[in-house]
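Technical appendix A lists one of the benchmark inputs used to test multi-chain prediction within the project. The record comprises two sequence entries:
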Amino acid sequence: MSEIIAFISQPWPWYVAGPIISLVMVSLILFGNTFGISSNLRTMCSIVGGGRSCEFFDFNWKNQIWNLVFALGLVLGGVIAHSYLSPNTAVNLSVSTIEDLKALGIDQPGAHLVPMEVFSWESLFTLKGFIILVVGGFLIGFGTRYAGGCTSGHAISGLSDLQLPSLIAVIGFFIGGLFVTYLVLPHLYSL
Amino acid sequence: MKLFRYLFIGAIFGITLAKAEVISWYRIYEMFKFQSFHMYGVIGSAVVIGVIAIQIIKRYKVKSVDGKPIHIHPKQFSIPRYLIGGIIFGLGWALTGACPGPMFILLGNGVGVILVVIAAAVLGTYVYGLLRNKLPH
């Protein structure tokens, strides 16, 4: 048993992760649902009473409980991976990425899952931390609902169903992502 | 409990994205810099198998586990909605290095401040709901 744990505690290659993601999508389809995580954000708006001020959130969110439970499973999966399957936190980045990140001024790139100097409570009170965490989160919520889906709903589910709208959305994801990576992050990290 | 299966599948998904480092801010940066095949391999292989699986489900009219017919609804065509919405999402994805799934998985990994990102995303969703009728779709 401990050998199995040690084996799966290594970082998983793409050709293991990709097929499992398709399996998750197919399982949800076979359960009669769809694979799309950002819908939970809309459900959360509805639960806290968003339906009173906006008809977009006025729906029976109880039909979406399965998706909230799925999101709870994500948290649980994170706990299991973190507590039992991760002997170290380092990320196996490419050499060129590590050099670029050092040039941005990031300490020990890839030592943890996220840059700890940004993903901390203290950093919320800096301009850099506020833009990355609060503005970034806001744009994700706004954009994903506007586009009708996020990476799971469009890049995985939509493309798997050969949906042209999803391809347009994914092209949009990359236009926005490349803009931030090449033109915004260098300035943000020099703040 | 019928809901237990969603918890189970969610946990499998969470472990997978954590162990494949998909939830890492650095991996998203690396992807947008085209410096590694990793993220393209993850998404690409998921889509290739997904296309085959959905074709099988459609061709053979596979039923759901409850015995009901499976409907996969086509998305309504539009360019501005998906392009503008997609770009806005992409800006946030590259800033936070996390899309909605990884946000929840990072929370389980002990990155507590991600709660603020989730709250901001809920707020962003709410503001979209308010402005929805004024935006091009």
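The mean pLDDT of chain A is 96. Helices of chain A lie at 2-8, 14-30, 39-47, 65-84, 95-104, 127-147, 151-160, 164-188. Comparable benchmark entries are summarised in Table A2.
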